[in-house]
Amino acid sequence: MLDYEERTAFLGEWGTFQKMIFFLLSLSCIPNGYVGMAMVFLVDIPPHRCRVPGLNSSGFNLDLNLSFPLEEVKGEVVLSHCLRYQEPPGPDGNETEGCLDGWEFSTERYTSTIVTEWNLVCEDDWKTPFTATIYFVGVFCGAFLSGIVSDRFGRRLVLFGTLAMQTVFTLLQAASTSWEMFCCFYFIVGMSETSNFNAAFILGSELLTKSVRVYFGALGVTLSYALGYTVLPLAAYCFRSWRLLLVVLAIPGFLYIPLWWYIPESPRWLLAQGRLKEAESIIKAAAKMNGLTAPDVIFTEDVTAELMENRTKESSRLYNWLDLVRTRNIRNLTIINILIWTISSMTYYGMSLNTPNMDGDPYFNCLVAAATEFLAYGSVWFLIRYTPRRFTLPFTLLLSGALLLFIKLIPDELSGLTLTLVMVGKTGVTGAYAFLFLYTSELFPTVVRNMAVGATSMASHLGSTVSPYIAFMGTYNKFLPFILMGGATVMIGLLSLWLPETKGEILPEFIHQVKPLQRVCLRQQCRGSKHDRKKETTSVGVTLSYALGYTVLPLAAYCFRSWRLLLVVLAIPGFLYIPLWWYIPESPRWLLTQGRLKEAESIIKAAAKMNGLTAPDVIFTEDVTAELMENRTTESPRLYTWLDLVRTRNIRNLTIINILIWTIISMTYYGMSLNTPNMDGDPYFNCLVAAATEFLAYGSVWFLIRYTPRRFTLPFTLLLSGALLLFIKLIPDELSGLTLTLVMVGKTGVTGAFGFLYLYMMELFPTVVRNMALGIISMASHVGSIVSPYIAFMGTYNKFLPFILMGGATVMIGLLSLWLPETKGEILPEFIHQVKPLQRMCLWQQGRGSSHRKKGTTSVEI
Q1: What is the dihedral of CA 697, 703, 709, 710, to 10 degrees?
Q2: Which residues 6+ apart lie within 8 Å of 247 measured at CB?
């Protein structure tokens, strides 16, 4: 079978050619950020009132009650924007009339917008949101048409043709003489905006290798979009006239003309069209640019014959959008992706376009919204690097949807908490929206890939077209938009669990290579093993049992108010564990390391009998026995002591790092947990809430354990907790709800890390010293718990100092934990010489790669 990436592996992954393509195509996406969001300032409605002949036109700050009636808007009584008292007054003296002489607009914020240009207020106020709708309809049509044109005539032609259209028609917009003309040009700008973005993304995905492709999709185009978004409020602040602003935003488009001679056509597309010579020419030019010598013949006659055979089966005709539903597999992918894209777009634009309605300066608000994009893309890149595709998309969507739904439960006085939930929800859906471009390009085959991205992106703009009206519902019920967007986002988050895994896989070339849907199954992870499931079950059991005991405490303390009686009540259940002596056996692993094979076999056979199974007559053969005794000769001729935890370099490094991590986690965990009685409210209820937080923490960590490597779970929980604690110093005093949220999320993170450490440490240390390591390191950790009351006491002098100390220390051990080796899916070590060394703190290559790396086709796994 033709493997494009194997044939072109000699190019390398990050040579001059790849760097040029990466940065030039990323730069081509910058205008999309400011063109798409320019409507925030173009159609904003400044303060206005009816023009009254003879009244001072600068009278926006005067008492105008004699000229204008009062009306209620959003619960506030203000002067009417669309009515004035009759001049001269009627018989009753308070008859009103419309703005017969036009309107006067405040120029404090804008010199002009299209609203002030064509008086799009009062009876014509429907034209303002409809202008945005026209733009999104253009985006809708452009996404549809560009996919077909790109798959038929090439990615490069569409990219530069739509860049030119975007620049020219933006300039024509600035010269519009009527609202209708403006909307016509805006429709074409919308068509070109999404077309060049899709073409650039697909062209980069097909020119770059697997490992670089993920950076391009997750960081290159997305951060360039965010950079353009950031430029918008700065340009709008400097140029307050809508015409001048459009000219300024259009001019950079001319800078992209020279790129025509640097960005080639996609060799993948050329091969799919049977144009082998042109594809080889581009690949050889890339090799020359990288200082390499390409083979004289890259695609041999056999490859050519195979390609032509594939083209006979798959490519004998031109592909169209009907091919996206031709087979069952690709039809399922198309339908699910359309639903996910549509609702993600609705939620993203429903929150993004609400920026001008927020309190404060619109320029600053827009700048903050742009900064949120950077946070979202950076977070998703981190998830892409460390987690499967089937985790990243559901996680971001379910997080966003759940937080938006939760807003309904927040009291009005906790406005800071509400703001936090909205911003985190927006971050989640923004990241999911960006991730969809990468995921969709991996799901669909080359022959219809650009068409698929175009069709699903086109369908998504049905959501963006609806989004202004979703936001408008907030004028009747402020929670309704969040309920609708949150519920829909949770729905597609669950639906995304059906999509197949694509991380590290070779891109499909033809339709018959498309993967089927996967079962929605949480019992078995994508890349796990039986060892993982056993250890994860143990971890969940221990941690949730601890949380259950924590929950019992406030209930018992509430019922028994005497400390003596409370201690007696808490001690009595211990007697109930006496019968367990006859049910819980010794560890066969430990017995084997002691050479007690018969006892180990006896326990295993008894377990098989209890499970209704028949065990082999001999479980450990003579060869196994001899090998075990040989290991004991080198490893276990003596009893092990705590000194063995520092005997070799590998185990010494693990011991020291684990002691540091456990100590600081214990300090942070108890520093926040023991502060529960100092919180406002009933101490019994506060303790019960703290216990409930434990369930949330352990449940979240179990989810991470199931779907992510160990080297992601521990750093993620620690860095999240530490960063949030450090961020508390920046929160204004009036946002107490936000501060409370950060503390609780930070505590959840460190609690989860504390629970996870038992599983991770069990996997790191060998059987012969595992229990000893747990005891010694757990003992050392309580140095942190001893220090924790004094850390909390520092808050009497400076309320931020405890958070700074705990947050800084937690971030430090979060970074330190990146050195620990990966253990997920590995067999537990038995002896000290089997202990793994530390791994490099490197984010470019993960511990468990595939053989594709050796061939130069590095996967996107980390």
Answers
A1: 30
A2: 171, 174
Smallest Cα–Cα separation from 43: which of 132, 123, 111? 132
**Angle, alpha carbons 674-677-679 (nearest 5°):** 105
Res 857: pLDDT: 33
Taking the C-alpha atoms of residue 267 and residue 275, their distance in angstroms, rounded to an integer, is 9
Instruction: Please indicate, yes or no, whether the overall pTM of this predicted structure exceeds 0.85.
Output: no
Listing DSSP states for 370-406 in one string gives HHHHHHHHHHHHHHHHHS-HHHHHHHHHHHHHHHHHH
pLDDT average, residue stretch 152-170: 87
pLDDT of residue 845: 38
Structure tokens, 636: 């276990």
Q: Nearest-CA neighbor of 139 among 227, 221, 32? A: 32
Backbone angles phi, psi at 433, to 5 degrees: -60, -40
Residue pair 729/560 in contact (Cβ under 8 Å)? The answer is no
Pairing state between β 70-73 and 48-50: unpaired
Within 8 A by CB and 6+ apart from 826, the residues are 531, 763
Radius of gyration of the chain (CA): 32
Tally Cβ neighbours within 10 Å of residue 66: 10
Q: What pLDDT does 542 receive?
A: 67
Residue 833 CA to residue 649 CA, distance in Å, equals 10
For 85-141, the pLDDT digits (tens) are 666 665 555 676 667 777 777 788 888 888 888 887 887 777 877 888 888 888 878
Tell me how far apart the alpha carbons of residues 461 and 511 are, in angstroms, rounded to a whole number.
25
Q: Give the Å distances, CA to CA, from 523 to 388, 463, 481, 657, 793.
A: 16, 34, 35, 32, 45
β partners of residue 77: 72
Tokens of 405: 């739904």
Helices (H), 473-517: 480-495
Cα separation values, 519 from 393, 438, 494, 499, Å: 16, 22, 12, 9
Output 844 or 177, whichever has higher pLDDT.
177
What type of residue is 207? L
Q: Is the dihedral of CA 389, 271, 851, 290 positive or negative?
A: negative
Classify 859 as helix, strand or coil. Answer: coil
Please name which of 655, 710, 656, 720 lies closest in space to residue 539, comparing C-alpha atoms: 710
Burial class (CB in 10 A: 0-12, 13-18, 19+), 481: buried
Q: Report the length, in residues, of the chain.
A: 862
> 631-663 pLDDT, tens per residue?
655 544 457 777 888 888 888 888 888 888 888
